[in-house]
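Appendix B, record 7
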Amino acid sequence: LLLLPLLLVLLLCAVCGEGRSGGAQWGRFTACVYKRAGRLLRSRSGACAAAQMFRQFHAMNRANCRKCDKYFHCRANFLAVRSCRGGSSRRVAEIISFCRELSQPGNPRDRRGDEAANRFGRRGGNCGARYLRSYGCAYRPRTGQCKW
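Structure tokens (predicted):
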């Protein structure tokens, strides 16, 4: 839990570095997360959920695969809830996902798709079956690379 502030900063960098207007998103995302989840992030399950989401957003940026963002949104929420059993994990996943969507500029239709993927993952859905091949995503979870 002592590393939580560092983890949150890394998560913020990963999320804000991904979008089109990185600097403008930073303040909005940070304010949103702290306002809605500040206390929850100090719990074990809340910190775990934030860490799981960071890992998936980092994997998404590292893989840099086209048409794969829905898979990574889904997987981040799935892991945050399923790997971090506890009262705060689901709520922290919801808040981080909400704040990310709120702070990202872009297409409302794409945003709705991201939100649906977030919910599907939190509900325990099979992210790979729904969002990999059927969406034209060439990401291979076993290797962490984009290849057909």
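Remarks on this record: The first helix runs from residue 4 to 18. The CA atoms of residues 139 and 145 lie 6 Å apart.
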